[in-house]
Amino acid sequence: MTKPSSGVPAWDPAQLPAQPPLHGAVTADVAVVGAGLAGLSCAYHLARRAPGLDIAVVDAERPAAGASGRGTGLLGPRAGPPIDRAVRRFGPSTARRMHLASVRAVEQVRTLCTRLDVACGLRPGEQIMATRARGGLVALARQARAYRALDLDAPVVSGATIRARIGVPYTAGLLHRTAATLDPAALTCALARACAAMGVRFYGSSPLRAVRPGRPRGAELVFPHGRLDAGQAVLAVNSSASALGLPVGTILPVEVYAVATAPLGPTAYEALGGRAGRALVDAVPLAPYFRLLPDGGLVAGGGTAIAAPDGLGARRLQAGRERAWTWLCRWLRSLHPELSQVTVTHRWSGRVGMTGDGLPVVGPVRGLPDVWYVGGCCGHGLAMSVAHGAHVAGALLGEPAPAGPLPWHRSAAPLLPVGGRARPVLRAYVGTLGGLARYTC
Fold it and tell me: N or C: more exposed end of the chain, with fewer CB within 10 A?
């Protein structure tokens, strides 16, 4: 059996615009740091709405190199905490607006894929949040009551219905009809090409070292071999915010894991909902999920996570990855008898930004006039990152938000004790959550 590619996602990076490293003194009307979905969405909407604006996108590596190109391609509605918690924290009206905003974000990505005319494997299909654990059933029941009270479309589905649609032995679930699956790297690269076609300049292999207030206004961005003076700046750097010392609260880097397989047999592919493009996400935090690919393969993720992985040695980190991938492979092979011998072709990890309250941070950076930050989508960034980029573009252009601010339109997340002695405690907590998730699955 061929050894799977470790560290390389299942997605092949598409053609990209030229990205020379940033050298010397460079200027721009708007600088976007981070060529993931949030940063590129911002640059794209700026270029569309304000032709002639001088926009520069700078990335530490290249477009789609980070979380946006390493996701598993699940496009579904979710922003912030579960709906019942959102009701308790923000009230029914705001909780309803939050959910509807996440539904619109899914629709906007589907529209964007059509507009870009990109072959990104987009397949509209249902997403089922399901469980077979008692704790998960209680959580789903609370969410179902909240969805009904808010008159939102998220019906309960029985275990029999789940088995008929996806063919796995789960007890109950909630059905999200506005959902899809796609190749996240293809979408990210398509946005980069569209930006370049509208005159956006790209710089690659240029990690941001520092951000300073500009003189007399704007921002000065410092890179290893040069600097960029911009009238406005957007830092779509996710969990790298802490390394830069940005005052945006705690955006905790958490490493998560995924595997992909060779094409399944036709029986297993159809039994697991392949033709309909359905996906299943376990309702227990950090529990695994899967979806099928247009070529007949399967992608699975979840089950394990490591908080603040930079503090681990290379050997310990790699050992943790091996354990995570091994467990995921065992889990996916338990889904259907025909998967017992399926070949795993890819194993990889990626980093998401987590916050203490489960909400992203999308807002101006305190103490840095004309600088905005986007990050901390807590693992639900495929749709919301695109929406956040569009929101920031509108704000930079002085456009009012169509429906007013949402709870994630803020300048900082809560601060968490993540350094020193607290770091191993935090890792242990996240590890415990993963252990509970694996136990229930």
Answer: N
